[in-house]
Amino acid sequence: MKPQNVKKSLKGSWTSYAFFIALILLIASCKKDAMVTPASVAETTATGATTSSSTPSGSTSSTATTPTGATTPATGTTTPAATTTTATTTAVTSGYTSSSPINLNGSHDITISGKSINGGSVPAITLTNCYNVHITKNMLGNSTDVGVYLYNCYNVTVDYNNITNVSTGVYVVNTTGGGIVVNYNQFKNMVGPMPRGQFVQFNTVSGSGNSISYNKGENIFGQSNPEDAINLYKSNGTSSSPIQVVGNWIRGGGPSATGGGIMLGDTGGSYEIASNNIMVDPGQYGIAIAGGDHMSITNNSIYGKAQSFTNIGLYIWGQSGSLCTNATISGNQVKFMNKSNSENDAWVGTGESTPSGWSSNTFGANISASILPSVVVSF
């Protein structure tokens, strides 16, 4: 669910025209390509074994409309909360062994490490029906497909990898066993095109122990074609173990009119948390809840300068018939300029209940692009 063209007067005025447009856009919101099981791939249990394969099917995502006629948020100028809980990825820049793309089916209890893989027209690494796998300290990139593709896997950790110039960095599909951990990676220049274009997307992922945390990602304008930096599509954590999207550094987005920073509850889902993330110029929007139950956005910092595609910093608005229930949005620092160079920090969508903690957010926060260092990704 990715908003586009939210219009908000700084005086907080609504017009009947804007409301009508919002309703029309809502009806047209959100489509998702049909998910298809990937083609059979050769099975191997050898660590780092490689096979030649076709690209897995099932690359799906969604397109959503944008709320229009957003009301003016409360404003204020405060110093942003300390941002010491930030991504701490360590770049690995040498010592790789060149490898052809890796494609495993049914493998388990293995580690894939130290590889340099150019994907070409297939994912750099594909795992299907695998479990207890550690993908770590690899250099992955240069593919018209994704960097790491996981289908029907569980207990897979993807960490400390450098991933660049791929359609999507890590794409996880149809995974119900839990334990998918995508932490401490570096991503640079996702090239899409839509429906791809994420650093990480979970698509119908559920269970406990799932995390997308402490990653660093940068899209350089003119060298990339991103959508959402992080997207959770029809994915469900549990009440005791929500999906964690914590401590990520994200810089750069656009020119997509639908893509942005972090999207929770895309076409529904439940028990997802986005906390302590820092975003600078992430695209059309910063962080959003687009549906689902028990979604939480807390203690994030979101800054966006005016660009031709920018719109709104933070919002909640159920789309594609997905209601937003039991939402919490609290303690966030937001300063976001729309394409007209008017501050457009936040919106509670038409018909939505005010989320728990809403009054604790700081809109019009005294923050700038300096909330992230000049170098985010170090490879």
- Any idea how many domains? 1
Tell me about the biggest sheet? 14 strands, parallel
At CATH level 2, the architecture is 3 Solenoid
- Amount of beta strand: 35-45%
Instruction: Tell me the radius of gyration.
Output: 20 Å
Helix content: under 10%
Terminal-residue CA separation: 31 Å
**What's the total count of β strands?**
32
Your description of this structure?
By secondary structure, the chain is mainly beta. The protein has one domain: Pectate Lyase C-like (3 Solenoid). It is built from one helix and 32 strands. The chain has one helix at 16-27, and strands at residues 31-32, 62-63, 97-99, 102-105, 108-113, 115-120, 125-128, 131-136, 139-143, 148-151, 154-159, 162-166, 170-175, 180-183, 186-190, 200-205, 211-213, 216-218, 230-236, 243-246, 249-251, 262-275, 278-280, 285-289, 292-298, 301-304, 312-316, 324-325, 328-330, 333-336, 346-348, 362-363. The protein is globular, with a radius of gyration of 20 Å.
